Amino acid sequence: MQDEERNDVYLSVYALGSWPINNGVFFQTGTVPDAKISVGAGAGLKVAVFPSIAKGFVGVELESIGQSTDISLPLTTGPGTGAVGRVNLWAFNSMVNLIVRYPHLPMMIPYGGVGGGISSGVLTHADIPGRPDKDFESSSTFGYQFLAGVQSNWSKKVFVFGEYKYLAANYHWQRMSLDFRSHYGLIGVGLRF
């Protein structure tokens, strides 16, 4: 009974794969129809608190994510028509998630949630004809996400988890913008305190 009255606090780290949706790249004055955003990889960190008053069912999670991917866009108008522009995109997200879970199964804890926060899209190594490229250009905006996953308990203190996440953010740089939408697969390990 005493365990149920304690706050559940954990720290976890994870690796991720991202599968961006290839639409929503705007360059100069219009949409680039054949733009490609490559599969990416990254890592993240989470800290969560499930207060005892909610009986372990509802909690708040702070999350920091970093990932890298590449964008290629065939140019169909203006300077550089016929060329393919390329740029590396680094996405950094700091999110607050509301998590709902079922904590009373012996080996598995299923959960789901929604989150929002600051998302920063950083362009590096840009090579896009017709655009004044910079070595480093950043755009910060509001981002949101939906997530679902399951934790598997190795012991009272240690767990592993797998998670699916959908993230959305709209970045705006000089003469280029991106309605970034991506699916994520996460695998990680955590420690309860």
Mind explaining what this structure looks like?
With 193 residues, the chain is mostly beta strands. It has one domain (3-68, 95-117, 141-192): Porin, CATH 2.40.160.20. Helix content is 0%, strand content 71%. The chain has strands at residues 8-20, 25-27, 30-31, 36-37, 40-50, 58-74, 84-101, 108-127, 136-153, 158-173, 176-192. Strands 1-5-6-7-8-9-10-11 form an eight-stranded antiparallel beta barrel.
The major beta sheet can be summarized as: 8 strands, antiparallel, barrel
- Let me know the number of strands: 11
Cα shape: elongated
CATH class category name: Mainly Beta
Please give the CATH architecture: Beta Barrel
Strand order of the largest sheet: 1-5-6-7-8-9-10-11
Order of helices and strands: EEEEEEEEEEE
The overall pLDDT average reads 91
* Rg computed from alpha carbons, rounded to a whole number of angstroms: 20 Å
Straight-line distance between termini: 17 Å
The helix content, as a percent range, equals under 10%
Low-confidence stretches: none
How large a portion of the residues is in β-strands, by DSSP E?
over 45%
Number of helices: 0
Number of domains: 1
Given helix and strand content, the structural type is mainly beta
In the CATH hierarchy, the third-tier topology is known as Porin
Give a topology summary.
Layout: E1 8-20, E2 25-27, E3 30-31, E4 36-37, E5 40-50, E6 58-74, E7 84-101, E8 108-127, E9 136-153, E10 158-173, E11 176-192
Antiparallel strand pairs: 1-5, 1-11, 2-3, 2-11, 4-6, 5-6, 6-7, 7-8, 8-9, 9-10, 10-11
